[in-house]
Amino acid sequence: MQVTIRLFALAKQIVGRSELPLQLPESATVADLRQELARAYPELAPLIPNLMVAIESEYADDPRAIQEGEEVALIPPVSGGVGLNPRNSQAVTSSLQTV
């Protein structure tokens, strides 16, 4: 079966596209998807173990079967936010107390 994989954030940057076509066997699972992605797109291989997979807008674990026509998305881990350091911790603490 042919599926279209939607890419976000770092995965999208690595590949340079927001969508990828991927051929999978009819009985493919998320684990099979990960293996095929690593084979077909080696530049993604280092990121694949850390990717969250969403099928039809719900996170899916490796045993989850993929059906033809379902929307599949790869979501890299997200990090960031305000770091606490001696120069800004007081400002962050003050703003949290006013919320």
TrEMBL record:
<dbReference type="InterPro" id="IPR044672">
    <property type="entry name" value="MOCS2A"/>
</dbReference>
<keyword id="KW-0501">Molybdenum cofactor biosynthesis</keyword>
<comment type="similarity">
    <text>Belongs to the MoaD family.</text>
</comment>
<dbReference type="InterPro" id="IPR016155">
    <property type="entry name" value="Mopterin_synth/thiamin_S_b"/>
</dbReference>
<dbReference type="InterPro" id="IPR012675">
    <property type="entry name" value="Beta-grasp_dom_sf"/>
</dbReference>
<dbReference type="GO" id="GO:1990133">
    <property type="term" value="C:molybdopterin adenylyltransferase complex"/>
</dbReference>
<comment type="pathway">
    <text>Cofactor biosynthesis; molybdopterin biosynthesis.</text>
</comment>
<dbReference type="GO" id="GO:0006777">
    <property type="term" value="P:Mo-molybdopterin cofactor biosynthetic process"/>
</dbReference>
<protein>
    <recommendedName>
        <fullName>Molybdopterin synthase sulfur carrier subunit</fullName>
    </recommendedName>
</protein>
<keyword id="KW-0547">Nucleotide-binding</keyword>
<dbReference type="GO" id="GO:0000166">
    <property type="term" value="F:nucleotide binding"/>
</dbReference>
<dbReference type="Pfam" id="PF02597">
    <property type="entry name" value="ThiS"/>
</dbReference>
<dbReference type="InterPro" id="IPR003749">
    <property type="entry name" value="ThiS/MoaD-like"/>
</dbReference>
